[in-house]
Design brief:
Chains A, B: It catalyses: an N-acyl-L-alpha-aminoacyl-tRNA + H2O = an N-acyl-L-amino acid + a tRNA + H(+). Chains A, B: Its EC number is 3.1.1.29. Two copies of one chain form a homodimer. Chain A is of the alpha+beta class. Chain A has a single domain, classed as Bit1. The first copy, chain A, is about 45% helix and about 25% strand. A four-stranded mixed β-sheet of chain A has the order 2-1-4-3, sandwiched between helices. In chain A, helix 3 packs antiparallel against helix 4. Chain A is globular and about 35 Å long. Chains A and B meet through helix 1 and strand 2 of A and helix 1 and strand 2 of B.
Chain lengths: ~110, ~110
């Protein structure tokens, strides 16, 4: 099992900002999962991959695909205290879910 | 309320790796919190800051301080599939907790 987190490359997030937004997405999608899925993922080491997304529209398309696959997912908008305008979409987390199902949504993306 | 995640600067993690390890620590410390603390933090926007840690010994010292302050916390070791040797300590998450209590542990560190 795994969780894939897609982060935008086109908005110039610093390293710390990127990490915080990825963590935010990861936790939110985790909370969107049922308890059986959560337990299975944690029991298998809560594998995560961080992937590159080209922009806001790609993140929304991937979220639609995750929805079709019935995968837990979460889109994050930045609160805008620093660096980015308030409401800027930054990250999308897909899963936890079975590797092959998550790959149907994000398997074509490059590692961040 | 906030959560602080301290990441080592001395082991040369790439951006994606750093983000995944920060997310791992964030989720693990979150799970170490009681349900009232979890809800309060989420309700206030689950604020996170990512901070610089100089090395493994500093992370362990900060974890001891978090323990003394009775803050939820989690030290993460990398599974070692990529980039790092298996078992390398990468990150420490402290909180969620009240800002001033978290600051007693990590307030002196720089933003990542």
């Amino acid at each position: 099992m795994k969780q894939a987190i897609v982060a935008r490359t086109d908005i110039g997030m610093g390293q710390g900002k990127l990490a915080a937004q990825v963590a935010h997405a990861s936790l939110s999608a985790y909370e969107d999962a049922d308890s059986r899925t959560r337990k299975a993922w944690k029991g298998s080491g809560q594998k995560k991959v961080v992937l590159k997304g080209s922009g806001e529209s790609e993140l929304f398309e991937l979220a639609d695909r995750a929805e079709s696959e019935r995968l837990p997912h979460a889109i994050i908008r930045d609160a805008g205290h620093t660096q980015l305008d308030s409401g800027t979409v930054t990250t999308l987390a897909v899963g936890p879910g079975e590797d092959e199902v998550v790959d149907r949504v994000t398997g074509h993306l490059s590692l961040f």
